[in-house]
Predict the structure.
Amino acid sequence: MKDLLFMLADLWMIFAGFCFGWKFIRRYNNYLLGLEWMVVATSGSNFLLWALLGGDEGSVLYSIAYFFDAFSRSVGITLILVMGLMRVTHRYKPTVAVDVGVFALAIVAGLYLQQFRGHEFHVGPATYYVVVNVLTTLFLAYFTWRVWKIGAKGLAIGAGLATAAASVIAITYDFFPIPGDDEHRTLFYMAALTTWGFQMFMYFLAYRALHNHNVATGAEPAPDERSVARA
């Protein structure tokens, strides 16, 4: 039952990543959030395959899983997330060069942090992950306030709960293992995968609400108006 719930949690996160990542790109031309959501979904797909094949830590799939994990924890669901959400909070649209550059930075970070893989506790990287998560949470609190301010209180509460849960996961990740969990940390990852999927789902809904509000108030042109402007 525990393994089944773990796989269901992973499938949920995979669905949320690919589905809402595609919608970010298709509907809003937001490649930062769209591609990062898909990176998380790809990570979940690799993680699921690794688990189904026996969870061998000597497998290349384990190295790929660690890379994706470091990619998103260091830059993806921190800097890239903030920059992507700033589209609806500050009308910030980075250039293609900036988009490419920030993903390149995430790749470098993911590769560099590979040296800290394994069961040993490394206080430096673990502390870095928590610090960048706290800084990201501050922006996400502001993002949630903006959603509340436009009257989408239900979505604001959902986004706030997702952020709070993700912060607990981030702190628990390295510093506070769940008592009684197995060596593969199945209980932890069950909670983490569920939370990360919920995050991507709620942030998409909250982003959509802010985008629609910006269009309605004239702060941002409607999609057809942007097409005319480019033409």
User: Anything to note?
Assistant: Helices lie at 2-28, 31-52, 60-89, 96-112, 123-149, 153-175, 186-216, 223-230.
